[in-house]
Write a structure and sequence with these properties.
- With 139 residues, the protein is mainly alpha-helical.
- Helices cover 71% and strands 0% of the residues.
- The chain has four helices and no strands.
- Helix 1 runs antiparallel to helix 2, helix 1 packs antiparallel against helix 4 and helix 3 packs antiparallel against helix 4.
């Protein structure tokens, strides 16, 4: 069975550490999708899986924004705003799961997939192009 959210080379930003993190985020979404597909949308393990995703999002955002700040990416404020909005949405989903008001469904999974794919393909490619234009490369 194919992954719910497969990695595409088009998502790469050319910074190995961030590409690995992007792959980890996609993997976390795929673990959530598998849990839902297996019929565990109401089980107590889902808040833990979702918390792990949320924790990793925070680590990734910190690393990504640090690179943008270090190299004076001019659109860093807008990018940070996008991240803050995403975290707000994640927090709302997580709260609903914790309080058992909601269960994880395909709408949440589609949101995560769509937001992350668009963010990697559009927003993240902006700082990747900026860094490349400045001759900044990462081993």
């Amino acid at each position: 069975m194919p992954a719910f959210f497969p990695w595409k080379d088009d998502y790469s930003v050319g910074i190995p550490r961030l590409d690995i993190q992007h792959k980890q985020l996609i993997g976390a979404v795929n673990r959530l999708a598998q849990a839902v597909d297996d019929g565990h949308a109401h089980q107590s393990s889902l808040p833990d899986i979702f918390r792990d995703l949320s924790d990793y999002v925070h680590v990734h955002i910190r690393d990504e924004e640090q690179i943008m700040l270090t190299y004076s990416f001019p659109e860093v404020a807008a990018h940070q705003h996008e991240h803050q909005e995403f975290i707000r949405r994640l927090d709302n989903f997580q709260k609903g799961l914790r309080e058992r008001e909601k269960f994880l469904d395909i709408k949440v999974l589609e949101f995560l997939k769509t937001w992350l794919a668009k963010h990697m393909m559009v927003e993240d490619q902006r700082y990747a192009a900026y860094l490349k234009s400045k001759g900044i490369h990462f081993p």
